[in-house]
C-alpha cells in the first residue's frame, strides 16, 4: 500500500521510552495503513532490538525494525531515510512523542496534498518543550513568521524571532528532497539535528505551515544532549556540526531567496554564538584556541558570513572579551535561557 508518510525513530538504549513514542503515532493516526514507522535500533545494549522486533510482529505493514551497528543519531536518521517508503519523512526521537489530535490534522493535510496532486516540499508545525520534571510546557510556534493555511514560498516568509528557528521537531520534509540533499551527517556525533534542519532548506521550493502543537519534546533530563553540562563536555561535537553547516553554503551567493538567506544566516549565527558561549563555560585548555580557529576559518571561507556572524548583535554580545566580558556574555545567556526555555 502507498505510504503518505514515514516516521523514523532513531533508538539507542530506548527500551524504557520507545513504547510511548510508538503508541502516540499509532493512536494519533488511528492505526492507519498509509503510514509507516521505522524503528532504527542503533546497536542498543538493552532490550531495544527485541522490542522493535515485537512491534514489527504486532503491526506488520505499518512498523518495521531496522538493526545496525552503533553509528550515532545522524546515521540512524539516515538509515530510516534510506528505508522510507512514504512521500514524507519525519523524525521522532524515541523519548519524545506526538500529540494525537495534531497528528490527525497533519495527516489530513498531507493526504489532501496527494489527492490534489499538490507538491509541498516541507510541512512545518509547532513543537512543545515538555519539561516533565518541572511540570511546565512551552510551545514554540511560527505566527507572524510564516503564512498559515496556504502553500507558500520562501519569498513570502516574515521575520523569525530568536526562539523561532525551524528545528528538526517542527519539520516534515518530502522524502525525495531529503535524499537529494545528501545530508552530511557525521557518525557518533550529537547535535546533527541542526544539519538536518539547515542543509535541505534551499531545496525546498514550496512550504506549508500548520499552527498545531504536534511534536512533544522531552527536555530537562540529567545527561540529555541539550543539558548544559553535557553540551559543554561535547563542545568538540558542537564545533564539528557548526563547521559542517558553515561549509555547506556560501549563503550570499548560493541561496537565491533573500529571505531564506537571512533566516539561514540567523540560524548559523546562533550556532557560532553557541560555540562561543560554551567555550566560555568550558574548562578545556584548548577550547579558546579551537574557537579562535573556527572564527578564522569562517573568515577565510566567507568573509561576508564572518562579518555578519561576528559583528551582528548576537555575535558581538557572545564574544565579549576579558573577565568582565565573559561575565556579561554568560549573564545574557542565562537570561535568554530563562526567557526562551531552550535548556
Detailed description of the structure:
The structure is a single chain. Helix 1 (18-28) crosses helix 4 (100-115) and helix 10 crosses helix 12. This protein has 14 helices and ten strands. It is α/β, with parallel strands linked by helices and 343 residues long. The radius of gyration is 20 Å and the shape is globular. It folds into two domains: 5-218, Spore Coat Polysaccharide Biosynthesis Protein SpsA, Chain A, CATH 3.90.550.10; 228-340. The chain has helices at residues 18-28, 48-58, 73-83, 100-115, 175-181, 193-196, 228-233, 235-248, 251-254, 258-281, 287-301, 303-311, 313-317, 322-340, and strands spanning 5-11, 35-42, 63-68, 88-91, 97-98, 122-131, 136-140, 151-152, 171-174, 207-218. The termini are far apart. Strands 1, 2, 3, 4, 5, 6, 7, 8, 9 and 10 form a ten-stranded mixed beta sheet that branches.
Amino acid at each position: 500500500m502507498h505510504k503518505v508518510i514515514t516516521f523514523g525513530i532513531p533508538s539507542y538504549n530506548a527500551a524504557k521510552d520507545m513504547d510511548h513514542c510508538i503508541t502516540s503515532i499509532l493512536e494519533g493516526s488511528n492505526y492507519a495503513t498509509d503510514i509507516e514507522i521505522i524503528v532504527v535500533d542503533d546497536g542498543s545494549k538493552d532490550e531495544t532490538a527485541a522490542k522493535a522486533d515485537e512491534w514489527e510482529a504486532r503491526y506488520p505493514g505499518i512498523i518495521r525494525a531496522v538493526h545496525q551497528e552503533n553509528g550515532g543519531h545522524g546515521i540512524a536518521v539516515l538509515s530510516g531515510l534510506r528505508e522510507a517508503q512514504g512521500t514524507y519523512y519525519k523524525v521522532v526521537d524515541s523519548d519524545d512523542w506526538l500529540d494525537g489530535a495534531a497528528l490527525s490534522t497533519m495527516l489530513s493535510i498531507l493526504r489532501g496534498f496527494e489527492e490534489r496532486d499538490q507538491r509541498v516540499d516541507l510541512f512545518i508545525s509547532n513543537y512543545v518543550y515538555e519539561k516533565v520534571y518541572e511540570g511546565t510546557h512551552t510551545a514554540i510556534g511560527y505566527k507572524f513568521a510564516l503564512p498559515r493555511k496556504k502553500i507558500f514560498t520562501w519569498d513570502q516568509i516574515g521575520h523569525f524571532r530568536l526562539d523561532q528557528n525551524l528545528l528538526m521537531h517542527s519539520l516534515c520534509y518530502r522524502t525525495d528532497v531529503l535524499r537529494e540533499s545528501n545530508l552530511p551527517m557525521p557518525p557518533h556525533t550529537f547535535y546533527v539535528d541542526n544539519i538536518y534542519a539547515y542543509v535541505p532548506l534551499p531545496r525546498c521550493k514550496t512550504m506549508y505551515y500548520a499552527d498545531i502543537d504536534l511534536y512533544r519534546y522531552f527536555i530537562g533530563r540529567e545527561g540529555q544532549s541539550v543539558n548544559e553540562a553535557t553540551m559543554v563536555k561535547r563542545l568538540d561535537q558542537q564545533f564539528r556540526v557548526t563547521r559542517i553547516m558553515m561549509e555547506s553554503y556560501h549563503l550570499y551567493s548560493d541561496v537565491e531567496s533573500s529571505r531564506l538567506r537571512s533566516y539561514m544566516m540567523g540560524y548559523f549565527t546562533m550556532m557560532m554564538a553557541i560555540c562561543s558561549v560554551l567555550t566560555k563555560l568550558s574548562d578545556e585548555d584548548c577550547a579558546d584556541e579551537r574557537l579562535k580557529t573556527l572564527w578564522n576559518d569562517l573568515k577565510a571561507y566567507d568573509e561576508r558570513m564572518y562579518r555578519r556572524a561576528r559583528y551582528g548583535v548576537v555575535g558581538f554580545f557572545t564574544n565579549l572579551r576579558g573577565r568582565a566580558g565573559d561575565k556579561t556574555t554568560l549573564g545574557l545567556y542565562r537570561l535568554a535561557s530563562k526567557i526562551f526555555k531552550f535548556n
